[in-house]
Structures are given as C-alpha cells and as structure tokens.
Design brief:
By secondary structure, the chain is an alpha/beta fold. It is built from eleven helices and twelve strands.
Length: about 350
C-alpha cells in the first residue's frame, strides 16, 4: 500500500484524480491532497484536508505524487518530490519534451516507464492524448508518416475557469438572439468577460488557442507535432496542426488526415482501431455524448479522396478524463503493476 500525494487537488483535474484513485481502488494507504497555501486546511468533499506547498518537510514518505497544478508549480515541486523518494506523474507541459522523462499514454507506450531517469513521468497534452491510441493501432498496421490534425477543443481544456467563462457568456447573448444573426460584431462587443479565450466563445468558435511560438503556430499546435513524435517513436512524423476552441463544456474532438507507408483499407482500419485498448468505434462521435467516458471514440473513417495512402477519421475524448486525470492515474497503476514504486522505495 502506497502513500500518494495529489498536487493541485482542488482543481477540476485534481478533483477527478482523487475520485479515480478512490473509484479504481488504487492501493493507497493514504492520499494527501496538496494545493496553494491559501487552500491549506480546507476539507474536501471526500473528507481529505488540503496541505499547502510550503516546505520540504511535508514531502517525506510519499511513493508516488500525481500533479495537475500548472507548469510553474511542476517545475519547482516535481523535482523536490522526486528528490524525497516519490515517482512523480506530471500532467503539465513542464517535462514532456525532456529526453530523460518518459511521455506516456498508458495503452500506447507503457514500456517507456523502463527508464525513469529523473523520477518524473510526463502526461501528454489532452488533445495529443486522444488521438494516440487510434493512431498507434494504425501505425502498427500501416506505418504512419504524416498527419493533418484539426482540433475542436472544449472550454474545459482551460480548466474550471474556462467552463465558467463559457456559461457566463450565454445568458447575455441569448437575451438578443436576433443580434446573433444580424449584428454579430455588436453582440460580441457586449460580452464582458473574455479573459480566458480572448474572444467570446459562446455561440462562436475561436481559431487561436495557445501562445504564438514565432512560426505562426501556437504552443498548443506544436504539442500535437512534438508529443506525437515522441510517444509514437516517429521522429520525422510530418504534422500540420490547427487548434480551435469551441463552445463545448468537456470533450475535445480532432479531425485527422493520416498518411501511411502502405495503402490502408477502411475495413481493416476499423478492425485494428476497434481492437485497440482504450478505443471504441462510433459512427458519429460527439463530445457531449462521450463526456464522462474513459475511452476515446473514433468515427467518420473514410478513404481520402485524393491520396490512396491516407485515411480521414474523427476522434473524440473527454479531456478531463483520458486527456488528463485518467491517464495520470493509469500511469500510477502501471508503476504499481511493474513494481517500480517498491523498487524506488527500496533504493
């Protein structure tokens, strides 16, 4: 039985992590929630009391620490937990591209856990995460060489504040629905809070998600390229990414045009994806209908009209579950199953 730290325990993803540890019967003797000092002493709905991140004395005795507290917190505290003997599973982008840190999707590349050189394992970006299981199945069958990926990402990808902002915008715009049809710019101008998304998201889509990296692509888009290459072990994978925010509460959707070394068939593609762990087939998958489900859904699988070596497919996944909290807990489960937590404790 292990002593488990949950860092960022009061956020949307941290709350899901605590629930999953409980519901999936993770072998924890104790779960200790950590958050900012202002949350210290707060009793959570599961009866646990929040500890503040204040000093190293509180870090002793943990076997595993799962993080969803943002990159700056992870950069400071993940190495400190690791130095005190825990294996850290981090949900931020802080360590994903570090060559000494495995970047793991539990159903795709669990063997990456054979080399945890810094005591830290990284969880992929929620959008990348959703497409990895089906693309892994197709890569094994046909040899993936390139993809064009266009994401339609939920407000919940920005956390609770993103969902709150979307909900807040709806009533004011609904008060004058005719303006949505005829005076869109004036309707948008009346939306008071656009702090999270930069523009009104309700009844709209925002085709800019993340921070410009200097090449016209955002950091969110570059994650689709760089993380996919690392997880699938395809350093030269050609990726053309576009990330769009849509007025959905939870659930990212991604349209993928995947190109292969060998010509694929739709029937066989459906067979290998449907057989892959963590993937389910659905003719018309939608984020709403797949919110709250562990698996990613794949549908609209079509031969490309212009290239016989390409397929088009539509993938949907719950960004708070498989995209974040669930995969983090699944990695912690793999650490247990492989004896890595006991081995580290013995060392």
């Amino acid at each position: 039985m292990y002593r488990v730290a949950v860092v960022g325990a009061t956020g949307a993803v941290g709350t899901e992590m605590r629930r999953l540890l409980r519901d999936r019967a993770y072998p924890a003797a104790e779960i200790v929630p950590f958050a900012s000092e202002r949350s210290a002493g707060r009793q959570l709905d599961d009866g646990l009391v929040v500890q503040g991140l204040a000093d190293d004395e509180r870090l002793d005795g943990f076997d595993v620490a799962i993080f969803s507290a943002g990159g700056s917190i992870s950069k400071e505290w993940a190495p400190r937990f690791a130095a005190h003997g825990a294996i850290v599973v981090d949900n931020s982008s802080a360590f994903r591209m570090d060559p000494d840190v495995p970047l793991v999707v539990s159903e795709v590349n669990p063997d990456a856990l054979d080399h945890i050189n810094k005591g830290i394992v990284a969880n992929p970006n929620c959008t990348t995460m959703a497409i990895m299981p089906p693309l892994h199945a197709l890569h094994d069958e046909y040899g993936l060489t390139a993809m064009v990926a266009t994401s339609f990402q939920a407000a919940g990808g920005a956390g609770q504040k993103g969902m709150d902002e979307l909900i807040e915008q709806v009533p004011g715009l609904l008060a004058d629905p005719y303006a949505l049809q005829t005076r869109g710019a004036s309707a948008a101008a009346k939306v008071a809070n656009t702090a999270v998304f930069g523009k009104p998201l309700a009844f709209n889509v925002v085709p800019l998600l993340g921070t410009d990296t200097g090449n016209g692509y955002t950091d969110e888009e570059m994650k689709l390229q760089n993380e996919s290459r690392k997880i699938l072990g395809i350093p030269a994978l050609a990726v053309s990414p576009t990330c769009v925010r849509v007025p959905v509460m939870v659930g990212h959707a991604i349209e993928v045009r995947a190109t292969f070394e060998r010509e694929p068939s739709v029937a066989r593609a459906l067979e290998v994806m449907g057989a892959h762990q963590g993937v389910e087939l659905d003719d018309v998958p939608t984020p709403l209908e797949w919110a709250g489900r562990d698996e990613v859904a794949v549908g609209r699988v079509r031969a490309d009209l212009g290239d016989p070596k390409s397929l088009n497919l539509f993938v949907v996944g719950d960004n708070l579950l498989k995209g974040a909290a669930l995969n983090t807990v699944q990695i912690a489960e793999l650490l247990h199953e492989r004896g890595l937590l006991s081995a580290r404790a013995a060392a």
